[in-house]
Amino acid sequence: MADGPELARADGLLTELRGRTADPPGVSRASYGEGEQIAHDMARAWAEELGLEIARDFAGNLYMTLPGRERARPRLMMGSHMDAVPHGGNYDGAAGVVAGLSALHRMRRLGVTPRMDVTVMAIRAEEVSWFPAPYIGSRAAFGILPAEVLDTVVRFDTGRTLGAHLAEGGHDPEAIRAGRRYLDPAGIGAYVEVHIEQGPHLVKSGQRCAIVTRIRGNYRYKHCRVLGEYAHAGAVPRADRRDALLAAVEFASGLDGMWARREAAGEDLVCTVGQFYTDPAVHTITKIPGEVRFTMDFRSYDEAVLADCHAELERLAERIARARAVSVELGEHTHAPAAAMDDGLIAGLRRAAQRLGIEAPEMASGAGHDCAVFASQGVPCAMLFIRNYHSSHNPKEEMTIDDFAETARLLYAMLDELVA
Which residue among 56, 170, 274, 391 is the one 20 to 30 A from 44 at the CA level? Predict the structure, then answer.
């Protein structure tokens, strides 16, 4: 199925990108690090081959534009991020930028001059694995990244702040601090993001691609901590213990119970404790644990559910702290709001799929995407998922070029309608 020079170019770029950012057993493309920069440089090289206009904003986001006939019209944008989690897969994020560039390659090959400018955006720092703040690149582009993030958020592997990494990369953290806006929502007619599916639904259904209807919002807590008291494992009876680990386990169990109860009531919710640990430098087999740290992430399509869960978990922490004579601190959290895709764009994708005879079920995204930031700014948004084997955020991500090509056909048909 994969044919045409643009699809061959896409396949070659993704293969080369895997090799150049390999970090066995997967790939690593750190936000504002070497791997992410390699990906941006490779995208830029393809754009230069196509003779596109190229620009970069103060956060390092890359814009590659095919000029339209009516340049004053709001432009059509496509894109995704190019960073990847540590030892992750090759396609998460990058496939979306490559899909956008393949669409512009096709327009160039066919001699199409679109009605309005069409821009592919390679976005920085989407993965919170590196910096614990959501959607850094896209929020900075709209001037809505809080200034304090520059000085308070540090990359886990370097211990240096976001502001320091921006300056080191030749970007302009002071423009972000001042709240400058590079992207004006009024100047964007639509934003389309292609992404691999990060769950198993398309693999189970045997379909190559899907039309996304909405994106889950989330609350994330990276610095949860339970403080009790270290004591001798053999000498202190149960009633006198201030066991941080058992308190943390009770909290995690309460989180799971809340999830089960709300799910049974028909609410949309997923909950995860991603890290859970004692300090190996202090704790031993003969000590009652005095401190436990953990992370927490819960997500929903419903903002009211998110806020209610936040309040319920704070009450749970207070109750466990009183009962076990410990301190349960959930710490600061981040919140990425839920987002709905544009009904008109969804309808256009539905029509295109029918014309092409492509089976493209409609489904929601459990994972967050930069598309949600565009939607929050009032930009009409659409997303397409590509079938991906073995889930995401792991080295086993597997997207076939034929599945990519089928999704690209749907993207091209949508663009033909929008830019005619």
Answer: 391
pLDDT digits (tens, 9 = 90+) for 305-341: 999 999 999 999 999 999 999 999 999 998 988 999 9
pLDDT tens-place string over residues 2-19: 568 999 999 999 999 999
Q: Indicate which CATH number applies to the domain containing 122.
A: 3.40.630.10
Q: Are 20 and 40 in contact (CB under 8 A)?
A: no
Pair 195, 386: CB distance under 8 Å:
yes
Residue (of 401, 381, 373) closest to 145 by Cα position: 373
Q: Are residues 173 and 238 in the same domain?
A: no
Report which of 138, 144, 150, 126 is spatially closest to residue 63, judged by C-alpha positions.
138
Bin 161: left if φ > 0, else alpha if -120 < ψ < 50, else beta: beta
Q: How far is CA 409 from CA 109, 242, 250, 350, in A?
A: 15, 61, 50, 13
User: Do 280 and 259 lie in a common domain?
Assistant: yes
Shared domain check, 286 and 308: yes
Domain that holds residue 403: 5-216+338-419
pLDDT score at 4: 87
